[in-house]
Amino acid sequence: MNEATSRKHWTELADEEIDLSDIPEVTEASAKHGTMREALIQKNTLLIDLDVYDWFRRQGPDYEWRINQLLRDYMESTSRAHPG
């Protein structure tokens, strides 16, 4: 994308003008790790130990996503083990 196209609003860009070079290819292996779902997110308050929170924050800027993903994985594995 050149400077002229980078200043355009994204709705004005033709498909050919969109630079996809920095987007990784979706492979079968990478697709297994991702899930496509409508984002149903609600801001909540959760009481967790400070050292746990600090550890997650040190993992990087997506620490809230990581916490959510671990909780989701636990929920799904528990649901499979104990349906209903």
Automatic annotation (TrEMBL):
<protein>
    <submittedName>
        <fullName>BrnA antitoxin family protein</fullName>
    </submittedName>
</protein>
<dbReference type="InterPro" id="IPR025528">
    <property type="entry name" value="BrnA_antitoxin"/>
</dbReference>
<dbReference type="Pfam" id="PF14384">
    <property type="entry name" value="BrnA_antitoxin"/>
</dbReference>
